[in-house]
């Protein structure tokens, strides 16, 4: 087990800055996913921890040792890659034990380690199989067992599930979590798949354009994204965004307003360009939110395409008077909002609806810098929207009238 630290690590390839001034501290025994779009620097970061690439600047520590210039074999790391490079002419036992035999471990020790590793990845009884007699998932388990027998301080995994089919990938996620629990070893895991990162990690490190955007537990990245990039990247489908302005009584965009006291938004003033973010599950039709005490004013919309997913329906909404507005040549996204509703909903395409946002789930970002300003906003205090039992009248929806019911009730009432 070991802690991994990157101090001001930069990697340049001629004119490309693959990783820029990265500071990262991965705790002993932690499972951290490096996640981000293709080309954001995930693999380069991993390679610098592995010793396959040297940083242009900065240093890497594993435990108390500065490993920046050490070769991979002296770093106590074991790697598992996307391409499972098993020796085709060797059986499972020989594939798993190859590295140990190369290092001249004695037979007894090799057997002990292979038994334990094959037990952990559930390959018992398959040690004499050849790779071409195994499924993709089984071959990937051999590759993981080969890493386990090295008894490393740190596991480095670069998209190890990327070549597996969807069902197997989900299954292997659970296996990797179990493996982590069993081995209690630091794992750094590279993926571009945010769902993989959300389900497995203790913390997610979100990268974009070679820079660390946020490192936090999955739900913190989901509920309190530090900037527009993280807000848009984490969560599927993505958060809705609407550009607008901070005004004296809240947020105003072309298609809707949300009332609140702008002084509750730290670091922003009236007149600033701000972007409002709301996740699809935090948008409700008015008739479904009787218990939502934190509803915004209603927004007129027309339903466009419906996507039934089985456990929920994604409803694409067009805000305002859709047909006319689209003919005015607006950009496709500016008047769209995605809402998710329960599968039993009788919502139809091309239906006029009124929707509200859950203001406790509204995010505000500075449009220019992308930095988050607020996660959840309070109602506008004052005669039209007090904090008493009639609070919520500003929403004009009847939502929240005389009720303190928590948001979760509304959600179950979709
Ligand atoms: P990711 O793993 O997130 O897809 P990489 O770390 O592989 O991203 O790459 C980050 C950036 O560095 C990309 O722009 C990529 O083209 C560039 N890059 C990576 N390796 C090399 C290399 N050996 N030579 C030149 N550019 C590279």
TrEMBL record:
PROSITE patterns, per the entry: ABC_TRANSPORTER_1, ABC_TRANSPORTER_2
CDD domains documented for this protein: ABC_MalK_N
Alphabetized UniProt keyword annotations: ATP-binding, Nucleotide-binding, Transport
Superkingdom assignment: Archaea
Entry protein name: ABC transporter ATP-binding protein
Subcellular location(s) per record: Cell membrane
Tagged with keyword Transport: yes
Residues of the signal peptide: none
Biological source species: Natronoglomus mannanivorans
Main location: membrane
Region feature Disordered, mapped onto this chain: 373-414
SMART domains listed in its UniProt record: AAA
Organism ancestry: Archaea, Methanobacteriati, Methanobacteriota, Stenosarchaea group, Halobacteria
Matching InterPro entries: AAA+_ATPase, ABC_transporter-like_ATP-bd, ABC_transporter-like_CS, ABC_transpr_MalK-like, ABC_transpr_MalK/UgpC-like, Mo/tungstate-bd_C_term_dom, NA-bd_OB-fold, OB_MalK-like
Residue ranges constituting the ABC transporter domain according to the UniProt record: 4-234
Claim: Nucleotidyltransferase is one of the keywords in the record: no
Gene Ontology MF annotations: ATP binding
One Pfam match: ABC_tran
Bilayer topology term: Peripheral membrane protein
């Amino acid at each position: 087990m070991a802690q991994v630290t990157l101090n001001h690590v930069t990697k340049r390839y001629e004119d490309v800055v693959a990783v820029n001034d990265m500071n990262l501290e991965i705790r002993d025994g932690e499972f951290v996913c490096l996640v981000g779009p293709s080309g954001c620097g995930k693999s380069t970061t991993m390679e610098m921890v592995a010793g396959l690439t040297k940083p242009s600047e900065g240093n890497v520590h594993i435990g108390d040792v500065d490993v920046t210039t050490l070769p991979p074999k002296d770093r106590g790391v074991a790697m598992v890659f996307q391409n499972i490079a098993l020796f085709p002419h060797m059986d499972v036992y020989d594939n798993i034990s190859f590295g140990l035999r190369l290092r001249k471990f004695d037979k007894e020790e090799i057997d002990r380690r292979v038994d334990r590793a094959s037990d952990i990845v559930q390959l018992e009884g398959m040690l004499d199989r050849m790779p071409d007699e195994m499924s993709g998932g089984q071959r990937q388990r051999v590759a993981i067992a080969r890493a386990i027998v090295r008894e490393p301080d740190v596991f480095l995994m670069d998209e190890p599930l990327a070549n597996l089919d969807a069902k197997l990938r989900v299954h292997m996620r659970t296996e990797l979590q179990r493996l982590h629990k069993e081995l209690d070893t630091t794992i750094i895991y590279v993926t571009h798949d945010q769902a993989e990162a959300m389900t497995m990690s203790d913390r997610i490190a979100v990268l974009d354009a070679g820079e660390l955007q946020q490192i936090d537990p999955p739900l913190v990245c989901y509920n309190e994204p530090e900037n527009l990039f993280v807000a848009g990247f984490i969560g599927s489908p993505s958060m809705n965004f609407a550009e607008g302005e901070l005004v004296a009584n809240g947020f105003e965009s072309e298609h809707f307003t949300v009332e609140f006291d702008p002084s509750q938004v730290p670091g922003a003033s009236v007149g600033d360009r701000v972007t409002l973010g709301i996740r699809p599950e935090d948008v409700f039709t008015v008739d479904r939110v009787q218990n939502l005490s934190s509803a915004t004013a209603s927004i007129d919309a027309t339903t466009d395409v419906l996507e039934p997913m089985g456990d929920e329906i994604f409803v694409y909404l067009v805000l305002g008077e859709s047909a006319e507005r689209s003919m005015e040549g607006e950009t496709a996204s500016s008047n769209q909002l995605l809402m998710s509703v329960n599968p039993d909903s009788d919502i139809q395409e091309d239906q006029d609806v009124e929707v509200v946002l859950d203001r406790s789930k509204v995010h505000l970002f500075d449009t220019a810098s992308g930095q988050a300003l607020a996660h959840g906003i309070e109602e506008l205090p004052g005669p039209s929207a007090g904090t008493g039992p009639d609070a919520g009248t500003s929403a004009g929806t009847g939502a929240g009238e005389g009720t303190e019911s928590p948001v979760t009730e509304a959600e179950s009432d979709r």
